[in-house]
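Example 3.2
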Amino acid sequence: MLRAAAAARALRGARAPPGRARSAPAAAPARPRGLLYARHGEPAAVLQLKDLEMAKLGDSHVHVKMLAAPINPADINMIQGTYAILSELPAVGGNEGVGQVVEIGSRVTSVKPGDWVIPADTGLGTWRTEAVFPEGTLLRVPSDIPVLCAATLSVNPCTAYRMLADFETLRPGDSVIQNAANSGVGQAVIQIAKASGIRTINVVRDRPDLPKLVERLMSLGADHVITEEMLRKPDMKDLFKSIPKPRLALNCVGGKSTTEMLRHLQHKGTMVTYGGMAKQPVMVPVSAFIFKDVKLRGFWMTQWKKDQMHNKDNLESMIQSLCELIRKGQLTAPACTEIPLEDYRTALEASMKPFTSSKQILIL
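Structure, written as tokens:
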């Protein structure tokens, strides 16, 4: 795993006179490079590794050397042109990652050279070696956490945290059921729930290496790992002899998986949909509404962040809580494969394969 000390260049500089940019001593920088796309389409066809122009450092801007950035499904969808929000073209791919501050403008107060930063919102374009960003688009994170944890912090763990906190008042001993449990969000749900004493029922698709996957999820703190086929069997009654029926269901799949999962919700329970991997509609029996009074909600991390932009206290508090879990060893990065930026085609191909359990991380 990429170590924090190795990834971070020592960037400690002297104070600059007032009104001038402050910077840390560094060697003459190489020309910035990044993965650029000028039209929408399949990533392998439209992405190109190109030299980029570096914007001038303004008074309220921050020069960042990117360290690592993951490839997420939303990144792929944005490049394909199928996501709910799209960047203005041409655009640099990537919405998540971690970088180190090299230099700051004279009016920047929230970060200093040497700090680690992550995107505060979607569309920053993180698949690049370095860039100049507005101060307001960045959040400082502690540099004493692993680089891969920092690089994968702003999307999946945040989504898991908010869904566990915002829809049901969960107490120790309560249970949650989720599909796509091996996804980045799913792994974060398992760990955050475990740290809070909340039990998890984790649904995954059957696959050739199922025992290996079950072992990994159990090692993260999963209470039960079952396949979608098991979800439909009468044996589920035996499972609920040792664990209460869930008050919260987290859906990232859609289709039959959602319908079956919904059957096991408690009376007045809530199902939150945050993805649709099966590309099938959420189908709910009328009886679930009438006799169980279930609630169906949706969640999109991007919208939640936009709603917080006028006041970042909630966002910063959440990041602080997640980093504390990381420090305690209660939240780890998902299984990752580190790929040099030059080999981005290999990373893209791997990220789009079915049954992928390892997140592709571009090392920048």
